[in-house]
């Protein structure tokens, strides 16, 4: 939509001209004509407002309507759309113009009279402003009735754009903090102590990064939900609403030792299915991304798994749970022995999300972990799937995001071979119900 600058003749009608959204006290009318014009505008606004049925408006509709009302109360001709961030023309401008401009504007009071028929038929009035018809079509209604959410390809692109901008910002926070006094552990997560030292430490930077990400996403997508490692993650129940599953610093152990293998891991689910993943590794300058059905990428370049099918040719990644309870350590040693006897190579770099992303990028062929959480797995696993790899449960069945374990591999064949040899260490689940996010 063009953000048309009004001719001075329009402005003289009201005696105001504000293009910015900064709130200013509007000047008083300078003559009787302007006074009358303003009165007429407010009379019309009151009539339109009395017809708004708030029960018909979605949460985002309500925000849009609020933004519009605030803008016109200051005599603004545009407002920032809370949904897209774009500038949208207010009813005030249409009122002053006195006719439909043909742009199918949301707040057109002239019934889109200059908009072509095909476009006009795609729009519907929600009692406050015009919306695209698909937003209220039957399919959507059915989904809403069953508690399911609908997101479009354009929505996913917007979500990806938003999270990529945010992880760039938090990447700087991490890069500036690593190796400084700020790294000192502020807490030990008691519930994780049995899983080993790497799971049990927490720094101020973990909290700062998580807050920045959640606040940034909330301001853009107020109806979205969050499961964050540091904000009581294990207790949160995954529902159908779009849910960001976030590990602000995956690799806190590496972080406190000034080791550059750290990342931020973010996955987004809708209707409990993963639709987007980002693993951002600020210190080695790699950002792994995927949107469901659109392939996997590293720094914008397409990535694929190695397709290795046999253990004898595989570079395996696993972690050694230093500080864990004796059972867990014994199982890890037995699994390591099998790999040392049968694989091509084994590496233990960590952190989990980065290890998973490396399988996606063909930088390793197989990985498994027992005792991690949804926030360690969400971002990376969709990237592996989109790169053509396999993601399964440690017992060889369907992957379960809430089960605390995962096998990822360059191929389904290799994933199944891993599931046959690993000894399983049972961990309490994050949620009682099975969630297959694919
Ligand atoms: C950690 C992982 C690590 C894994 C731990 C833990 P944190 O995440 O990256 O690789 O072994 O179990 O989940 O605590 O650094 O975000």
Q: Could you explain the architecture of this structure?
A:
- The protein is α+β, with helices and mostly antiparallel strands and 438 residues long.
- The protein folds into two domains: 8-136, no CATH class; 153-421, Fructose-1,6-Bisphosphatase, subunit A, domain 1 (Fructose-1,6-Bisphosphatase, Chain A, domain 1).
- The chain is 37% helix and 18% strand.
- The protein contains 14 helices and 18 strands.
- The strands form five sheets. Strands 7-8-9-10-11-12-13 form a seven-stranded mixed β-sheet, sandwiched between helices. Strands 15-14-16-18-17 form a five-stranded mixed β-sheet, sandwiched between helices.
- Helix 11 (326-342) links the parallel strand 14 and strand 15.
- Helix 7 (153-177) packs antiparallel against helix 9 (204-220) and helix 12 runs parallel beside helix 13 (374-386).
- It is elongated and about 90 Å long.
- The chain binds L-MYO-inositol-1-phosphate.
- Residues 195, 198-199, 229, 247, 249-253, 319, 350-352, 371-372, 376 line the site of L-MYO-inositol-1-phosphate.
Topology:
Layout: H1 8-14, H2 32-50, H3 59-73, E1 78-80, E2 87-89, H4 91-97, H5 117-121, E3 123-125, E4 130-132, H6 138-145, H7 153-177, E5 185-188, H8 197-200, E6 201-203, H9 204-220, E7 225-228, E8 243-250, H10 252-256, E9 263-270, E10 273-281, E11 286-291, E12 296-298, E13 301-303, E14 315-317, H11 326-342, E15 345-347, H12 352-360, E16 366-370, H13 374-386, E17 390-392, E18 405-409, H14 412-421
Parallel strand pairs: 7-8, 14-15, 14-16
Antiparallel strand pairs: 1-2, 3-4, 5-6, 8-9, 9-10, 10-11, 11-12, 12-13, 16-18, 17-18
Helix pairs in contact: 7-9, 12-13
The site of L-MYO-inositol-1-phosphate (LIP) has 17 residues, from helix 8, strand 8 and helix 10.
């Amino acid at each position: 939509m063009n953000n048309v600058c009004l001719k001075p003749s329009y402005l003289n009608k009201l005696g105001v001209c504000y293009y910015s959204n900064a709130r200013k006290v509007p000047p008083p009318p300078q003559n009787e004509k302007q006074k009358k014009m303003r009165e007429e505008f407010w009379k019309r606004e009151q009539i339109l407002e009395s017809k708004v049925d708030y029960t018909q408006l979605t949460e985002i509709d309500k925000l849009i309507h609020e933004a519009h009302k605030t803008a016109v109360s200051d005599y603004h001709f545009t407002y920032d759309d809370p949904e897209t961030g774009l500038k949208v023309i207010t009813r005030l401008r249409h009122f002053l113009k006195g006719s439909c401009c043909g742009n199918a504007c949301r707040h057109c009071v002239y019934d889109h009279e200059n908009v072509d028929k095909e476009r006009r038929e795609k729009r519907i009035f929600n009692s406050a402003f015009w919306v695209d018809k698909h937003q209220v079509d039957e399919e959507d209604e059915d989904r809403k009735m069953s508690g399911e959410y609908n997101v479009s390809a354009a929505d996913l692109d917007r979500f990806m754009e938003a999270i990529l901008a945010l992880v760039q910002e938090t990447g700087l926070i991490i890069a500036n903090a690593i190796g400084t006094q700020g790294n000192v552990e502020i807490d030990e997560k008691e519930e994780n102590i049995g899983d080993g030292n790497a799971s049990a430490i927490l720094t101020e930077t973990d909290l700062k990064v998580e807050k920045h990400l959640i606040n940034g996403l909330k301001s853009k997508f107020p109806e979205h939900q969050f499961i964050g490692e540091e904000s009581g993650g294990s207790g949160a129940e995954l529902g159908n609403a779009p849910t960001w599953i976030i590990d602000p610093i995956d690799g806190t152990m590496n972080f406190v030792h000034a080791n550059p293998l750290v990342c931020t891991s973010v996955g987004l689910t809708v209707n409990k299915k993963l639709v987007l993943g980002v693993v951002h590794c600020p210190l080695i300058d790699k950002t792994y991304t995927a949107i469901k059905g659109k392939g996997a990428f590293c720094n914008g370049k397409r990535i694929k798994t190695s397709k290795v099918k046999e253990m004898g040719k595989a570079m395996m990644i696993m972690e050694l749970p230093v500080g864990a309870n004796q059972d867990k350590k014994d199982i890890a040693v037995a699994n390591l022995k099998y790999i040392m006897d049968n694989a091509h190579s084994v590496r233990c770099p960590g952190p989990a999300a980065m290890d998973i992303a490396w399988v996606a990028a063909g930088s390793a062929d197989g990985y498994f972990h027992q005792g991690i959480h949804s926030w360690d797995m969400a971002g990376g696993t969709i990237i592996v799937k989109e790169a053509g790899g396999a993601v399964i449960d440690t017992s060889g069945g369907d992957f379960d995001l809430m089960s605390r374990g995962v096998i990822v591999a360059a191929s389904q064949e290799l994933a199944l071979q891993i599931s046959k040899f690993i000894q399983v260490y049972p961990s309490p689940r994050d949620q009682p119900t099975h969630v297959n996010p694919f």
